Amino acid sequence: MSETLINENSTDGASSAQPMIEALGLSKYYGSFAASRDVTFSINRGEVVAFLGPNGAGKSTTMKLLTGYLAPSEGEARIAGFNMATDRLEGARRLGYLPENGPLYADMTPRSLLHFFGHLRQLSTAELDRRMESVIHTCHLETVIGKPIGKLSKGYRQRVGMAQALLHDPEVLILDEPTAGLDPNQIREVRRMIRELGESKTILLSTHILQEVHAMCNRVLFINEGRLVFDGPPEQLGSEPAAMDEKFYEFTAAG
Q1: Plot region of 111 (φ>0 → left; ψ -120 to 50 → alpha; else → beta)
Q2: 3-class secondary structure, 251
Q3: What mean pLDDT, rounded, does the chain reach?
Q4: How many domains is the chain built from?
Q5: CB count, 10 Å around CB of 244?
Q6: What's the pTM value of the predicted model, to 2 decimals?
Q7: Strand partners, 77
Q8: Contact call for residues 206 and 168 (beta carbons, < 8 A)
Q9: What CATH number is attached to the domain comprising 88?
Q10: For residues 192 and 8, what is the distance between their CA atoms, to the nearest angstrom?
Q11: Within a domain: 139
């Protein structure tokens, strides 16, 4: 890896900040194929970080390793200080995860789905009622709360997935392609929601859309062919689409 691509000052103040998401030499092998190779980074409390890279670069695999959904071949993943291999339940209590194609059940309503996940997370009746009221308002689900999820638009299904991830009020959010397949108005709404959530939570979100970075994030991680090739502020990618496209090409061609 070229050392010039990693900004050593990208985590200014890290010595006094609290790491909430840590990848420590994470690798995942499928036979001779490496989906993720020696990925190392740390995200501190209060950061909103974009995870960039082309399709097939290893973004989703690395996120699944961080959440404990996949076991690493090598290395360690930590959420809020908890090793996701040995203390997964403690880490999961502090983590909200939105996969690219989330676990939504078409015959359920948003209300019944949230009740289902709330009971799985062992929330008390009073706490579940309080949290449901909060996430329904945050994700603007009031008008569809009693409709079958299978009848909802992609935008509303994405909101339901976000509400599920937020239900237990986690400190950390990991969001895999949260705006994928949405129309411009829906993208604007999701971006607004993520910016608001970033005021109180630590967020890692994956995307291959460069414009998402300046809209939502204060730091960028770029992965290509399973390796981390850039860690720094969005400004280093450029402020204009053409400059950002050129950086994207530079990082992927370098792989």
Answers
A1: alpha
A2: helix
A3: 89
A4: 1
A5: 18
A6: 0.88
A7: 23
A8: no
A9: 3.40.50.300
A10: 30
A11: no
Name the band, by pLDDT with cuts 50, 70 and 90, for residue 240.
confident
pLDDT at position 7 is 52
Does the residue 164 lie in any domain? no
User: Which long-range contacts link 81-88 to residues 24+ away (Cβ below 8 Å)?
Assistant: 81/19
Please give the Cα distance from 171 to 120 (Å, whole number). 18
Q: How far apart are CA 6 and CA 9, in angstroms?
A: 9
Q: Within a domain: residue 149?
A: no
**DSSP assignment of 130-190, as one string?**
HHHHHHHHHTT-GGGTTS-GGGS-HHHHHHHHHHHHHTT--SEEEEESTTTT--HHHHHHH
Structure tokens at 183: 């129309």
What digits encode the pLDDT tens for the residues 34-72?
999 999 999 999 999 999 998 889 999 999 999 999 999
Query: Residue 121 falls within a domain, yes or no?
Result: no
Distance CA 176, CA 102 (A): 9
The helix or strand, by DSSP H or E, that contains position 91, with its residue range, turns out to be helix 88-93
pLDDT digits (tens, 9 = 90+) for 101-155: 777 899 999 999 999 999 999 999 999 999 999 999 999 999 999 999 999 998 8
The β-bridge relationship of strands 48-52 and 33-44 is: unpaired
For residue 240, give its domain range: 1-94+176-183+202-255
| Residue 9: band (very low, low, confident or very high) from pLDDT cuts 50, 70, 90 | very low
Of residues 211 and 74, the one with the higher pLDDT is 74
Structure tokens at 45: 């409390």
